[in-house]
Amino acid sequence: MELVTLGNGLRVALAPCEAESAAFGIFVASGSRHEPAELSGISHFIEHMLFKGTPTRTPLDISRAIEGRGGMFNAFTGEEATAYFAHLPWEHFDEAVDILADMFLNASMPDDEFEREKQVVLEEIRMYEDDPDAVVFENLQRALFPKSPLGIPISGSAKTLAPLRPADLKRYRRGHYLPSRTFAVVVGRFERDAALKSIASRLGRFGKGLRAPSLRRAKAPFGRVVASTTAAKDVKQTRFAIGYRTFGFADRRRYAAAVFDAVLGRGMSSRLFQEVREKRGLSYDVSSRMNFFSDAGMWTVSAGVEPSKEEKAIAVIERELRRIRTRRVGAAELRQVKDFMLGNFRLGHEKVVSKLHFYGQTLLAYGRAVEPAEQVRGIAAVTADDVLAVANAILDPSVRAISRVVPQS
């Protein structure tokens, strides 16, 4: 991968690979944790509105230009980033750059589209409120980060969205969508000089000379973890998630943490899947995941169970957590887990869009080029002692919370 900095400070990552397509993305270091409380959800709303037309393109023009050529385009908002991307046959790459740059710089946000899309976002929030998985994780993150914007839903709430006007979104976007916070990423089949010229001609002058204010950060500490939270819903199962607040992606232990996570809850061979589902039939789905932010993280394990089986399922999980922090992972198991992780990474990295997200998100995280080989080396170097040490660092009872969604009585 090659990284080129344009005159306005925007960085362009060029990652050619053998393919019949090209993917283009714009990644911005601006997400929900950077919002003041009264504007909670504004980053996500901006993401929606960038698809609602520009002075020269209607929303239908935008979708037809990409999808009409067999391509796809989408976006996402996270706690610390927002991204817009398109994937289409390589010969239409220049048009993808033109469309995404037009959306990114010139979204018009007309009043009628604004009010209509606000209702769409509110429906999205209601959809999540009806989803026990979404509720259990949203409440868990709030419990782990009770005094931080990291604990506030990315979509915001009806209360914070109701007063927003198009001018608020345009003002916020101007203050946060700045070249020093932005990466443009190209992956797939393209001609290097032509691709760079195409991007520079559309994005090379935006925000030139503007200095980005410091990104809003939560004041340390993040607040005392709330040990338990329960919500009652019209559901048949009890859904629970156990979480621990931990370190961020810059920590040197991140590879050991990823291996620790895979040992416990990634895939059908993992300890939790085998113990909770295969041996005891307590849950159809049980898994774990590691989430890293810039200065913090969270490790979670979740399952859905018959209410009468909840206590037993949690006891089995807790036993496995005690085991991984008191006994080293055996050599054969460690080798098998690392083979699984490396194979999974390599297979995923064959996809053009997966490569795009890998480069975009690692560039935002580290501010530098990270090649897949670096990830492979990091995982391969993890030892059983590393896993034992990181297990004891992560599984700290003082930063543990449990979130439950239970059937209404």
Gist of the model:
By secondary structure, the protein is an alpha+beta fold.
Which terms would index this structure?
6-stranded mixed β-sheet, 409 residues, alpha+beta, 19% strand
Query: In what range is the share of β-strand residues?
Result: 15-25%
Q: Please mark out the parts with pLDDT under 50 across 5 or more consecutive residues, or reply none.
A: none
Helix/strand/pairing class, anyone?
alpha+beta
Mean pLDDT score: 93
Number of strands: 11
Strand order, sheet with most strands: 1-2-6-3-5-4
Q: Could you estimate the helical fraction of the residues in percent?
A: 40-55%
How would you characterize the largest beta sheet? 6 strands, mixed
What's the helix-strand series? EEEHHEEHHHHHEHEEHHEEHHHHHE
Radius of gyration in whole Å, from Cα? 22 Å
Outline: globular
What gap, in angstroms, lies between the N and C termini?
56 Å
Count helical runs.
15
Can you give a write-up of this model?
The chain is of the alpha+beta class and 409 residues long. 44% of the residues lie in helices and 19% in strands. It has 15 helices and 11 strands. It has a 6-stranded mixed β-sheet with strand order 1-2-6-3-5-4, with helices on both faces. It has a 5-stranded mixed β-sheet with strand order 7-11-8-10-9, with helices on both faces. Strand 4 and strand 5 (82-89) form a beta hairpin. Helix 1 crosses helix 7. The longest helix has 20 residues, at 111-130. The radius of gyration is 22 Å and the shape is globular.
